[in-house]
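Researcher: Structure prediction, please.
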Amino acid sequence: LLSPTSWAFAPINSNKVSPSPPTTTTLLKAATSLVWLTGHEDLRLQNHGGFQNALSEEENDDDKNPTTTIQPIFVLDPQIHLRCKSKAILTRLHQCLCSLEQDILASITTGAEEESSSTKKRMAPLIVKTGCASDILPKVAKEFKATSCHVIADDVVTDVRQSQRLTCQSLSNMGVKVQRWTNALRPSITTVPSFYPDYCQLLRSHDLTNFQKEKNAVKKDTVTTTTTNGGGSTTTTVVPSLQEFIELSQSATPTPVHEFRSSSRADTNTAEPFEEMVTRQFTSSDAAKSALEEYCSIGKDAFANQYYISPTTSGKRSSSSMYAASIARLMNDGNKASDVLALREVPTRTFTSAINMGSINTREILNAAHKKQTNGNSLLPTPEPPLWGRSSEGSLADVVEWREWFRLLANRSLRLQEEEKAGTSGGEKNQSGDPREPGTVHYWRWKDQYLVRYLTWPAGIDYDSSAQNASPAMLLVHGFAASAEQWERLVYRLRQEHTVDGKDCTPPIFAIDLLGFGHSEKPGLSYTQYLWEAQLVDFAVDVMEAQPMIMVGNSIGGGLSAGAAASLGSKICQGLVLCNTAGVLEDPDTYEGYTSTSDNNSNIRSFTEAALAGNPNEAPYSPIPLVGNNALDAFGTAIVKLIYPQIEQRLSIIYGHRMENADPAVVYAIQQSAMSPGSANVIGSGQKLAANRPLNEVLEGLNVLVVMGLDDRVSSPAVAQSRAVLFQKLRKYNENIVVEAIPDSGHCPHDETPELVANAMTRWLSTATMNSAADALTTTTKTAEQEQVSY
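Model: Predicted structure follows.
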């Protein structure tokens, strides 16, 4: 077999051709089983279904040569592993690959020492190739005369899923036997309901409590070294350096993304809390296993206080991101991590990255949790969270159980969509009211860790982004308890508005589920407005690739969109539409901006700078005495139980002017999300929020259309009227703000009266630069004077 030195790492666009394997008689007779490592949940040697299956393959009775070579290969795909990736993600991938490579080399060395004449399986060193897997894998299979290829089951992330399917089909077409394996906790469960309580009931029919450790995928007595013609063991490293990873990523990433990430503005950074520590301490296979052992040994609180000390990069109050600083604020004034972080936050942050890279197996984590459990309580998922608190082992089990549910839910949606059925929750129920345009379901893994659902609608056939007055792409952001599905009626109307004389010039449209809502995961984190703003910024940069866009937000989605738009800047976010937006809005005539209350922080000149510093002029966060985070989860659970039976009734009030739009589809989508695991924590996290940056500050310099349903029965019509007046006042200080009042609409005007919102947006977008949009708009149905709003 080839020496790894002849499979030297080739950079992107390299024309270097890998040499063919030696043509000795022995090598020609040897069979080869490829183990394709995708970089998702499979970068380890032990407890690995691919290696395990390759070892257990039956020998061909007609093959006189008893030796089969197991050849691991990782294809570094620029579009999947490198494009638009942050340094933290690249570092974690590099660490996992290096760890895997060394484990393979160690197993080869051990195998050589124990080699016997009866050996039938030989492990080869890792191969790393660069390019598209569907191009490279068939070539490698041909060169090695591979008879089989072992690869993990399809991921739910769009580009990874497509790559896996195309590559496996190409291999099958050339006669290679493709065998799939899975990390599923319960492989026998392949079809699930869309409602979490029904899923929990389904689990009761399975044997779920006896989790035995998987046998090591590589056994010392069955795997030996693969040698070169000279007979010596090979130990050459083929994984490129981290610097090479970074350079390759830069080559694969679009220029607008580079320009944004190289900005000197601190508010463009979206680094996670504890990001560097987690990357350094818990990513590789050995590190993740050691962390699991220590966590189970000393417990969640002691583990939290030992490692989760500083959420920020610098370890000081100043931070690299507002997201990290929002968690640093919780830990100010001597607060310990165990007192302020969410009940499941420590195991979530510790193991999620390693799970998704594959350096540790979810079954191994669940086994450890069950082994630690001593009080006789079941760790099985239940429709309702525990009444009070969560043990260390329970929190650990929840990390993988919740993750499993959202993965199964995503697979279900994609499978239904592939069968040309509705892939959304609402699509399963009766729909009435104004017409919808269903979107296409996709999944993205934020920070390469947390599943996020988003919907897309294609650009019109006549859309030309370079045309004068062409609308930029749109990103739609839902409000509290809602989801991406709530935008389908507005999209239908927008396409009508953009279709003139038979030409459809609708721009491409995206709608996202915020983390903790819809079909996106609800990991056990501390949710703050800066977490969600970071998610929106990353989506605009990673998925939309920093293309010019318009952001449209409703309720809290409006406030979050405003913050994200300020971070993205007007070059990317060229316009902002706020539909009955949340967010602090002070009277523009008396607004004085940020004022420091401490001489020690006199250099802080804005609310954004204060957010980046962890809001040092605020009173420190105080955990609830004695009960702490237990009370927040209990509070969230109580709110869910209180509101859930009232969802249908409340929606009929919110959609008071068009009740038929509050149909079973809208109701069920909200119910489905509310009953998913993690909802209580999302609600309880509201007690941890820092003060919002006022809209007076974040809207500076942005083109803004404010749509206000004046009969808002969530905040009250009086509040809606008052905020419309304040936004109109704000025009004196930002002439690019336009206010559109809709008297006969409420808190969700985009879904209650979508034709009016779409028309207002179209008139606003039709202006050359949107700066003069104020002159193009009038109020809808009634004049402003009739509504006592002075425009």
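Model: Residues 87-113 form the longest helix (27 residues).
Researcher: Thanks, that helps.
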